[in-house]
Write a structure and sequence with these properties.
The complex is a heterodimer of chains A (151) and B (731).
Chain A (H helix, E strand, L loop, with lengths): L1 E6 L2 E6 L6 H8 L18 E4 L2 E4 L12 E3 L1 H7 L1 H9 L9 H14 L5 H8 L9 H15 L1
Parallel strand pairs in A: 1-5
Antiparallel strand pairs in A: 1-2, 3-4, 3-5
Chain B lengths: L8 H10 L2 E3 L2 E3 L14 E4 L2 E3 L5 E5 L8 H13 L6 E5 L16 H28 L6 E4 L2 E4 L4 E4 H8 L28 H5 L9 E2 L4 E7 L7 E5 L2 H4 L4 E7 L13 E6 L2 H10 L1 E4 L9 H11 L5 E6 L2 H7 L4 E7 L11 E7 L2 E6 L4 H12 L6 E5 L13 H13 L3 E4 L2 H6 L7 E9 L5 E9 L4 H4 L9 H4 L13 E6 L15 H19 L3 H8 L5 E2 L11 E2 H14 L2 H6 L3 E9 L2 E9 L8 E9 L6 H20 L5 E2 L2 E2 L17 E6 L17 H11 L12
Parallel strand pairs in B: 5-6, 11-21, 19-20, 23-24, 29-32
Antiparallel strand pairs in B: 1-2, 1-10, 3-4, 4-5, 7-8, 8-9, 11-14, 12-15, 13-14, 16-24, 17-22, 18-19, 18-21, 22-23, 25-26, 27-28, 28-29, 30-31
Helix pairs in contact in B: 2-3, 3-4, 10-11, 15-16, 15-20, 19-20
The chains are: A alpha+beta (151), B alpha+beta (731).
The structure holds FE2/S2 (inorganic) cluster (2 copies).
One FE2/S2 (inorganic) cluster binds next to loops of chain A.
Chain lengths: 151, 731
């Protein structure tokens, strides 16, 4: 069946099973490979995107559920929060990098609603994103650095 | 930049059949492998570096990038000797080819083994550029100097950019032993550099295994046998799948008889046009599996077997004095048993591989740690000619040892051969956890008697674990190998004049492999907690206790001879321990009642001391602070070394706090991140790292930060009043 989704400001008409998780629509049908597959069960955060600004696990969200809503992915973050990306690079946060799209989308959503997150706020907002390489302390620094620079 | 001339048959076949390879947002064009044919105008004195007439320096990284920053470090080394401008350096990933030397990105040895070859490559190119400039000016090369991507002749104020010189330089002979820069003139080695892929990662452009897409490619979602050794007997495909036009079909793969090695396990592959179709059909298949000798394997029973093994004498690896009689006759002895469970690598990127078989050739793009072994394994298993097999690593989304085993690549090759089209194999997390090459569980038993001064007078240590060799070499190689024991056991720095060091091996019913720091994880745990217990018994500070034990000691000899220049020096171990004592404010904090734990360990030729502080008031003993001191000899990217220590603390905490895998009836019980518990943001302490400035030879960085973490946590929990915790996970 045909479904319309808005991803990064572009409307797409798709002929897919309506139960297809958004993750696989992004990756396999829209060639937006920045969003990653880590667990498929909402446990790791590698697939995090924003839906109307809310960080969401795209592996558990069907494409039907986002019809008529705005999906944004890592590919659009450079337009939305370039300073956050810059902080990420300057802090040399990433190791293997595989989790980082998801980390960035969660961090961006946090900063959009909380201009001065505390350590506890960061813990809560980021707890759903696993980094097996263990870059957490740098993620924390990059979030703080961005928040401070914006003050 | 000049492009590459290609003589590779498989490559040519491949290009004819399918055009340009598209990897993520990159086009993998022929500029990929900088082996420059004679007659091009590019200067390439070595397989590791090429300088084009546009001045762009291409450094070819022949080791796999999995987060350890090797692409950046390799470029730093070459750039330094070359006197190149960092902004004009690009890094290419090499395919698997023996001409690069060893490509097995494992064992924390990329810099250790290739520091000199890479320096020589950069220095040779520099000397050729200088000679070309000198020739064109009619002056002696000794009057010229390379700096900032330019050759200068000070006397005449003439200069020429590298790009202008590349053509002429490429016609000169390659100097055999170029003069290397002296250490004080290094301007990239030892400095901090942002990873070359950092921007791509942060914008979602970095391409991993599952980001490779080829024209006409199909996806294979794997359903693996629930038990190692089983094969699919029959498979029922539901009618709903048959009606789905995006479902292509199923293929069965039998378990490979004989040694497990890197062979594929029994599976049913669901071939589909897209991943979700494959996942959905995979869930609906009804499969009967054959019986397997491993179907009764139970991790609790196995752990009990390991416990029993350390009750009896094992193979004796080291014996001095009369430890056994002294311990039997002792009125008082200290005795402790330490245990660790099965662990999984669980890199964030589950295994995924793309293969394209065309005729008698195959091309692979996959996140592999060793493209040469992958290539050779394909040759051995699938009867391709070596020159017809091309393997190029993508970025690895974490690996930690898992992706040096190319079982998942062999699946892709076999499926592509059968389906005659490019195939991308996709594992789900459940596949990854069921079919890891697991970190071995272990049990160790330590016994000692103490003298008047609190120092050990007799000492016996036994370890038991399943050897990696029983999986990768031959099923009957169950006894721990010398290299496994030299990971913190036979090369223990805790020596005693009456000492027995013994080991035993048992065969597990699952695959065993190497995980970041390997046997050091359990051996550092047992040794460092036991020392803490002895210090407690002796009424001494655990740091003082170690220093007293090491008084007058110089070099530790393990079961294997040391590499020249890499002897295990007690002085360096002592040094990192003293530094971490200072940095953590150990004495003051202990006096003030803070709960701190310490551990120190030598592994991969490096020395690491770690102090963790836990929150006494937290029932889970949250780690608040970590202090790490690393002596890895000469280092390349200082920030990478720090990042690796930070990452190692978190990696170590996962194992220390909550991670544990169990098997019932041969089948894994924890098959996703709700059962296999990895450290998350709230678990991450603030971490400070000191790097020792050293002119020793470069040693390991990726792994040696891991081993001290679990024992430091156990020792801190003891200080916090949580009792002696001798079994991982601790929480
Ligand atoms: S892949 Fe969606 S949370 Fe892990
Ligand atoms: S950077 Fe590797 S998993 Fe986060």
């Amino acid at each position: 069946m045909s479904i319309t989704v808005n991803v990064n400001g572009v409307e797409h008409q798709l002929d897919v099973d309506e139960n297809t998780p958004l993750l696989w629509v992004l990756r396999d049908h829209l060639d937006l490979n920045g969003t990653k597959f880590g667990c498929g069960r909402g446990l790791c955060g590698a697939c995090t995107v924003q839906i109307d600004g809310t960080p969401t696990r795209s592996c558990l969200t069907t494409v039907a559920a986002v019809s008529g809503r705005h999906v944004s992915t890592i590919e659009s973050l450079v337009d939305q929060q370039p300073d956050l990306i810059e902080a990420w690079v300057d802090e040399n946060v990433s190791q293997c990098g595989y989790c980082q799209s998801g980390q960035l989308m969660s961090a961006a959503a946090l900063l959009a609603t909380n201009a001065a997150p505390t350590d506890e706020d960061i813990n809560v907002a980021m707890a759903g994103n696993i980094c097996r390489c263990g870059t957490y302390s740098r993620i924390r620094k990059a979030i703080r650095r961005t928040a401070e620079a914006r003050q | 930049m000049n492009s590459v001339s290609l003589n590779n048959l498989s490559r040519r076949n491949f290009l004819v059949s399918s055009g340009v390879l598209v990897v993520g947002s990159y086009a993998y064009t022929s500029g990929f492998n900088p082996v420059y044919a004679n007659g091009t105008r590019t200067l390439s004195p070595s397989v590791y570096v090429a300088i084009g007439t546009d001045g762009v320096v291409t450094v070819t990284c022949h080791r796999s990038e999995m987060g350890q920053g090797i692409k950046t470090a390799v470029a730093q080394v070459v750039c330094d000797e070359l006197e190149a401008d960092w902004e004009k350096v690009v890094v290419a990933q090499a395919e698997g080819d023996a001409k690069y030397g060893d490509q097995n990105t494992d064992g924390s040895r990329s810099i250790k083994n290739f520091f000199m070859p890479l320096r020589n490559a950069g220095a040779a190119a520099r000397e050729m550029l200088v000679q070309a400039a000198a020739d064109s000016w009619g002056v002696d090369a000794s009057e010229c100097e390379a700096r900032e991507h330019t050759v200068h002749h000070a006397a005449s104020s003439r200069r020429a950019a590298f790009g202008e010189l590349a053509d002429a330089a490429s016609k000169l002979a390659v100097p055999e032993s170029p003069t290397l820069k002296s250490r004080e003139n290094w301007n990239h080695i030892g400095k901090s550099r942002i990873h070359v892929d950092a921007q791509d990662v942060a914008t979602g452009k970095a391409a991993y295994g599952a980001d490779v897409t080829l024209p006409n490619m199909a996806i294979a979602v794997m359903v693996h046998a629930p038990v190692l050794g089983s094969s699919p007997l029959n498979v029922k495909v539901p009618d709903s799948a048959k009606a789905n036009s995006r479902f292509i079909g199923i293929e069965t793969i039998d378990a490979t008889p004989g040694p497990i090695g890197f062979n594929p396990v029994g599976s049913v592959a669901v071939i589909a046009e897209d991943t979700f179709t494959g996942i959905k059909v995979a869930e609906e298949l009804e499969i009967n599996w054959s019986d397997s000798p491993n179907q009764d394997f139970d991790s609790d029973t196995f752990q009990q077997d390991l416990r029993e093994a350390v009750e009896a004498p094992g193979n004796v690896w080291h014996e001095v004095g009369d430890a056994n009689n002294m311990l039997e006759g002792a009125e008082e002895k200290i005795e402790a048993v330490y245990e660790t469970p099965f662990l999984s690598h669980a890199p964030m990127e589950p295994p995924s591989a793309v293969a394209n078989v065309v005729g008698d050739a195959v091309e692979v793009l996959a996140p592999v740690q060793d493209p040469q072994t992958t290539r050779n394994t394909i040759v051995g298993a699938k009867n391709f000619a070596l020159e017809n097999v091309k393997v190029t690593p993508t970025l690895l989304g974490g690996a930690f040892g898992r992706k040096s085993k190319p079982d998942f690549v062999l699946e892709a090759v076999e499926l592509s051969r059968r389906l005659k089209r490019p195939i991308r194999v996709q594992w789900q997390r459940e596949n990854d956890l069921q079919y890891d090459y697991f970190h071995a569980p272990s049990v160790q038993r330590y016994e000692a008697t103490l003298g008047e001064n609190g120092m050990p007078t007799a000492w016996r240590q036994r370890t038991a674990f399943p050897s990696i060799m029983s999986t990768v070499a031959a099923p009957n190689m169950v006894e721990p190998a010398n290299w496994e024991l030299d990971m913190g056991f036979t090369n223990t720095p805790y020596r005693c004049e009456n000492q027995s060091i013994e080991a035993a091996g048992l065969k597990a019913g699952v695959r065993i492999g190497w995980l970041r720091s390997v046997c050091n994880i359990f051996h550092a745990f047992g040794a460092n907690v036991f020392i803490d217990e002895l210090a407690e018994q002796a009424g001494m500070d655990p740091i003082d206790y170690r220093l007293a034990m090491w008084d007058g000691m110089d070099v530790i000899q393990g079961a294997l001879p040391s590499e020249p220049g890499h002897e295990f020096k007690i002085e360096r171990l002592r040094n990192v321990l003293r530094k971490v004592r200072e940095n953590s404010d150990w004495d003051q904090k202990i006096a003030d009642g803070h709960a701190l734990g310490v551990a120190v360990h030598h592994s991969f030729l490096s020395y690491v001391a770690t102090v963790l502080e836990v929150d006494r008031s937290d029932p889970n003993y949250k780690v608040t602070n970590a202090h790490v001191v690393l002596d890895c000899g000469t280092y390349v990217n200082s920030d990478t070394c720090i990042a690796q220590m930070e990452g190692a603390v978190v990696f170590g905490l996962s194992a220390a706090q909550r991670a544990k895998l169990t098997f019932k009836d041969g089948t894994i019980q924890e098959n996703n991140f709700d059962g296999y518990l990895i450290a998350r943001m709230p678990d991450a302490p603030s971490i400070s790292v000191e790097l020792i400035d050293s002119d020793h030879l470069p040693a390991g960085v990726g792994e040696p930060g891991v081993p001290p973490v679990a024992p430091a946590l156990s020792n801190a929990i003891f200080k916090a009043g949580g009792g002696r915790r001798r079994s991982l996970p601790l929480i």
